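Good morning N.,

You mentioned wanting to compare the apo and holo forms, so I went ahead and generated the holo version with LGQLAAA5. This is what I fed in:
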Amino acid sequence: MAEAKICGITDARALDAAIDGGARFVGFVVYPKSPRHLSRDKLAALAERARGQVETVVVTVDADEELLAAVAACAGPDWIQLHGSENPGKTAQARQYAQRGLIKAIGVARPEDLAQAAAFEPVADMLMFDAKPPPGGLPGGNALAFDWQILAGRRFGRPWMLSGGLTPANVAEAVSASGAAAVDVSSGVEASAGLKDPLKIAEFLAAARSA
Ligand SMILES: O=C(O)c1ccccc1N[C@@H]1O[C@H](COP(=O)(O)O)[C@@H](O)[C@H]1O
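and this is what came out, ligand included:
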């Protein structure tokens, strides 16, 4: 059984589907270039609805302290996910803005990319391995997968989550190939960019649970 994070939630129906389906985490994106970006008001409302039912994650990209403080004030997230090119120092500084911890995303295309994990283990509470973004593309949320076998048998000093191009149809194979204990999805449970499909969320969570 793999734990799951449903990321890029933009409305209450999707949030409720994630909670009802047994997600451990829900993710809210604060990054204006993303089709899943949330205004402060919407972020606050969704975080309030989620409180106490599921662990909340705010996803940021190279956010400055002002933005992190604003996110903390309006949403009080359990976790902050850093999905840009934050270095270990910046990652450590962000810790004060999350209630439970930090998730640091690492882009993976080749086995050598996993070496970056070591520098973040002392400062992040969880790692996320996502497909390296295409040149000029968004830093995440691209529906791109990488070779999951790269992770097979690898051990890290922190818990980690598999991300990138996961869907209800491939998540079981991804878990089996990589050995992931937790998985993260955004595009694979959408009807269109930025609009989650509650049925696909339920299917993904059922598949992850039985993986
Ligand atoms: O989802 C986004 O729009 C996004 C924007 C900026 C940084 C990260 C983002 N999403 C993260 O990427 C993973 C993988 O997405 P996908 O399933 O391949 O579409 C997503 O789960 C978020 O953690």
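The beta strands are 3-6, 25-29, 55-60, 79-82, 101-108, 126-131, 160-162, 182-185, 190-192, 195-196.

Happy to go through it together on a call whenever suits you.

Best,
F.
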